[in-house]
Write a structure and sequence with these properties.
This protein is α/β, with parallel strands linked by helices. The chain has eleven helices and 13 strands.
Length: 389
């Protein structure tokens, strides 16, 4: 606490995030802050839509997410055609779960500390098909989740492994290449959720040879609610028959042919209806903003801020749930103050304008490109103040 913040200035103009004038914002894992250029891009789309079809006809609507798919493609190093834009990550996972529809005699592996939307679609499909959903039990040691824990649940009947790259509550990061190797060794498919990593951890779906990757715009990407994405490895597309289809799922949406379902020969077959288009435009702008900053730089910065937080936490005798090694964490850190009602600790921090969320019995801090060493110091001072009481 009280260490000089030299060298840990924000790596983006803080004036792009007016909320920072009021609070110490450490909650990108919950709701990210859209920078001003992202809000401007979304507003421009809103203004266009306010004129109805005058400037937004069927043809334009059919192509409106081309830019968003291209931006996601750049972010995760895949072709735009292999990306669908969805309204939420839940929707993306559910679309995949009902496409794959694993039946009786096979299993889906996840963990019991995932964000609920990672497991619910499979639990729901299981109600319909009788597939087995295996949730690796790490609830008593959430920060220690490893690929070996997952491997212990996988066998030759595993159809899908569905898991987060970075855990939303503990912040533990798994190596995607190891997960892919595990899936391949058992002829299973891997669905990776990168909602807590995209925007802060460089992602290369092609290099890692991922099968499916889902993520959203609202948190670390600094977009807004209503736009998420889903990557499908092109070799898997032909067999992908989504549970929800609609006019937008087809090769040419403006054709409106009600007689038969023909699916687009691209991942966008997972898109099916009218969407909150300004959110998708915002997603594209948000990705461009971060790509200009450089995701490698963002990760380096978040790691450095995390180390400063860890050092200060150790100094006041609080505990870190998140793995300490850089290779095992990204931008979020979960800490607990022993002997204190942790929910009250989080509430007190929020009252002190250090904005974080209660998760897993701890307080979850997210440290992003707009955060500075001074932000971490303010958080530590607030924690030390609580600890002393
Ligand atoms: C890892 C992860 N997956 C999925 C979700 C749910 O996202 P959405 O609200 O877009 O469905 C969250 C939200 O916190 C999350 O952290």
């Amino acid at each position: 606490v009280g260490v000089a913040s030299t060298g840990l200035d924000a790596i983006v103009p803080r004036s792009d995030f007016p909320a920072l004038e009021e609070v110490t914002y450490c909650n990108s894992a919950s709701l990210g802050l859209p920078p001003l250029p992202v809000r401007a891009a979304a507003r421009e789309m809103d203004d266009l839509l306010a004129k109805g079809t005058v400037a937004f006809d069927d043809e334009i609507e059919a192509r409106v997410y081309d830019g968003a798919r291209a931006a996601v493609g750049e972010l995760i190093n895949v072709a735009p055609d292999d990306v669908a834009i969805t309204c939420s990550v839940t929707e993306a996972i559910a679309q995949l779960a009902w496409s794959l529809m694993p039946g009786p005699g096979v299993n889906v592996v996840s963990t019991n500390i995932e964000f609920p939307s990672v497991t619910y679609p499979w639990l729901r499909v299981a109600q319909a098909t009788g597939t087995e959903v295996r949730l690796v039990d790490v609830i008593d040691r959430p920060g220690e989740l490893t690929v070996d824990d997952v491997a212990a649940a996988v066998d030759r009947d595993t159809a899908v492994i569905c898991i987060s790259h970075v855990q939303y509550a503990s912040g533990a990061l798994l190596d995607p290449s190891e997960l892919v190797a595990l899936a391949r060794a058992h002829d299973a498919l891997l669905l990776l959720d990168c909602y807590q990593s995209a925007g802060v951890v460089p992602i290369d779906a092609r290099l890692w040879d991922l099968d499916f990757l889902v993520g959203g715009g609202l948190k670390w990407l600094g977009g807004m609610a209503g736009a998420a994405f889903c990557y499908v490895r092109p070799e898997l597309l032909d067999d992908l028959n989504p549970g929800i289809v609609g006019w937008r799922s087809t090769p040419s949406p403006p054709d409106f042919d009600a007689r038969q379902i023909e699916l687009a020969p691209a991942a966008r077959r997972l898109e099916y209806a009218t969407m909150p288009y300004s959110a998708g435009i915002g997603l594209a702008a948000a990705i461009r903003y971060l790509l200009d900053v450089g995701i490698e730089r963002v990760l380096e910065h978040s790691h450095a801020l995390g180390e400063r937080l860890i050092a200060g936490i150790d100094a006041v005798g609080a505990e870190v749930i998140t793995p300490r090694e850089r290779e095992r964490r990204a931008g979020l850190m979960n800490i607990t103050v022993p002997g204190r009602d942790q929910a009250e600790v989080t509430r007190a921090l929020n009252r002190a304008k250090v904005i974080c969320s209660p998760r897993l019995g701890g307080s979850r801090f997210s440290l992003h490109c707009f955060n500075s060493g001074a932000d971490v110091d303010r958080a530590l001072e607030a924690i030390a103040g609580l600890h002393a009481r």
